[in-house]
Each structure stands twice: as structure tokens, then as C-alpha cells.
Task: structure prediction
Amino acid sequence: MVNRKKVAIIGGGVSGLAAAKAFDEKGHRVCGFERSHDFGGVWEISRSYPDVQTQSPKDLYCYTDHPMPDDYPEWPKGPQVHAYLHSYAEKHKTARLFRLNTNVKTMERRADGRPGWTLTIEAGNQTWSEDFDFVSICTGQFSEKNIITHPGQDGFVDRGGQVMHSSEYTDPTASQGKHVVVLGGSKSATDIAVNAVQNGAKSVRLVYLENVWRVPYFVGGINFKRLLYMRAQEQQFNQWGKNPLQRIIAAVLKPLVWVNFRGLETLLKTQLKMKKHNMVPTTPIEKEVSCSVPIVTPGLIECLDKGQITTVLGTFDSYTEDGLRLTTGDTVPCDVAVLAVGWKLGVPYLPQQYQEKLIEDDGQYRVYRLAVNPDLPDMGFVGFNSSFCTVLSAEMIANWLVRYADGQLKNQPTQADMNKNIDMMLKWKRNERPAAKIYGGLCSAPFHFKHFDELLADMGASQKKRSNPLAEQFSYPNAPSYGSFLASTPQYQAE
Result:
């Protein structure tokens, strides 16, 4: 018999909604906490910059039992994703489980000696403590802004200049008639640069440290989901945990894989006019095809062609009376500085003694299956995986986590098992996926299939792959199919 637990869900975005549903449908008492006034996480309207849209097609960015509406575009806009998440919460009646405008301040192991954690919670003018048997942290990759400053910033602001994080660029009129400088090379940076052009900026500069490979929504006229996100393509990369036979096969096929990627590079260089705009990366694409590869913002190449956006390899040095000095030595005019420098992965409410168990000295996270740390009992994480299948990944991990918490995995790991696997994964990431460090050490793209295979095996799924071998090898992860795989796992209810 599985005992009913009181479970805290921290965060009400994509991951929090998935975790709330997973624990609720198993019969647990769920209490969700969302510090904002609304659900949605990064898609909550007040956190979204204008024209934000998914990097993933809509059938890659959805829950297993809730497809995005047919009338949504292939790459939905921010308000559409926000509405979709609300419709998911309404469908599964998870909104009733959350307290909005409620912030978790601290958490400590329960003083009564029972399993679980005591959370210190703040809402309005009230602060209280509450005990939980299990805590699911679902704040994900985008919970804390990465805030940076440069010399002279206070004086620049006093003179009427604006400095803002990319998430604060919510009013496009802020760029009208202004000299705009965007720091960063991610999709959010290029989205804002293009938006500034479209809204009448006097000049727009995009400043970033190094050229990176970018992928357009259509590569040579083909939707990128049909090229980059299939099991056969995934097998071209050096996966973790290969057996001797798999390593031999990989060695034999290595020349063909090399030719394939050189062809992709040539196609992208031509399609995106990388040489013309001095944007050719110095590293091979296979080293970057992970979550570090941004999608090309529609209109970016056209803006570059017309000279409406100027790119600069470098970063900010300091603010001056005349504008903004760059590390190139040039001073450029600047009225609005937008810092598209990302977010920090962190758990600020977790005491330092536990953070030391969770985070390695180089910033890598010690997590098994991207979900649990063996030295932090009665706790798990959902949404700490950078992925083009973010929604599906969150749902898969949430379903794995509730079974782990209930001791209902077919392959219930021991502490020794978890530590051994974590050490192996950390070694693999450091050697094979250095981009993972930028994303908190949790980036598994492009290894969606392998990761999902492991989760399903742990859960005891009787079905793990589509019956059609061609469809399984040459199509992207299919959310409804994974819904049927989850349904094939042993079912139970807490009492």
C-alpha cells in the first residue's frame, strides 16, 4: 500500500502544472505555490517580451493528452502558449491546488524527525511554516534573472538611459526613436533586436561574445523537427552509456557522420548568409547542436541585409557620456541597453548545506535522471532539463518522480546506484557536452529519446517505442505516443 502524502509543488509554470497533475492523480494531497499572480512561468504575460514565440513546433511543445489547438501556428506566440497552459490547468483542475502570489522563502528538514521538509511561506503580509512529506521543485531553468552591471551604469540611468533585462522589455515603444544596444546572442536577443527595428529604433546593435550556429525554422525548406529531432539523428552523437558493440558501430560510422554535419554546416552558411554577415562559428556544429543552438528569429537576416541591425563581436565595457564603450574599443550611441544574458538555475530557498550536496564546484548539478539527488531525500526536481521538448520532458519526469517518491518504480534505484550514474553522467557532460555547463549541467538535447527510454524502463512500461520502426527512427518525439507508453506502466493509487 502506498501512503497518501502531503506534497509541495514550487512553481506554476510548465513543470509545476505537470507535477501537480502527476501527484494529484495518484491520490496525494497537493499544495502548489506560485510567486506570480498567474500561472505560466516564463510564458506569464508580464514576463514576456513582445513577439516571443516558441523555439519548438507546437506538436513538440505539448502535453501527452492535450494537443495545442489546430488553429495555432506551427510556432505559437507567447500569449497562445499562456492560454494553452491555462486550458491544461482547467482540463485537469489543477488551478485549485495552487496558491498564487505566494513565495517560498526557506526550507529545512522537519524538526519532528519525520520524513519531509518544513517550508517557510510568504503571502501578502503573512509568513508561516508548513510541513510536507515531499517537495517537488519546479522553478526550472528560468526562475532567477541573471543580473549584470557595468561601470558608469548609474550615471547612464541618471541621464535618462534605460538598462533592462530581456524579460523587462515588455513595451516595444521603449525603442522608438532610440539607439538600442542588445547584449547577447540568444534567440531572445535577436527577437528583441528585430522588434526594435520594427518599432522604429534609430539604430540597433547586437553585441555578443562569439558566433554560434543557428537553425532556421525551415532548413533548406524542411521543418527542422524532421531533420534534427529524430532517433536516427540522435544516434549520430556520442551518447552516454554505450556498450562495446555500440562504440564499434559509432567508430565505423564516424566518417559518414562527419560528412553529414559538414553538409549541414554548408547549407546553413548559405541559407543564413553567415559569411556575408561575419557570423560563421569556429566550432563544429555537432559540438553545439544542443540547447545552445538558437532558432533564427524571423526577419533577422533581412534586417542584417538592410543594415538595420549591426553585429559586434565583444561585450560591454562601460557606460560613458557619449553612450556605451565596448570591449572592441569603440563607443556607440546608446539610449536603451537590453541585457539578454539569460537566467540562473538555482534554488535560493534551499540552505547552503544542501546546495553543496546538489551543486558541484563547476556549477554542474548532481541529479539522477535529471530529477533527484540521493543526498536530498523527500525532494525532487521537474523542469531542470533544457530541451526542445520541454513540456513532454516535464511530464515524463513528473510521472517518474511521483513513482520514485512512492517507491513504485520497477527499477527503484539505491543511493549507490544513483551516485554511480550521476558520476558517469557528469564525466560524459564535461567531456562530450561542454555546453551543458551554461545550462546548469542539465542539458540533454539532442538525447530526448534515450532519456525517455530510461524513464520508461524505470517505470516498468510495457510499451516504449512505436510499433512502426520507420516512424520510430525517422520522426520526432510524439506526445500522444508517449501518453500511451505512460499508460502502459503499472498503475496504483495512494491511500
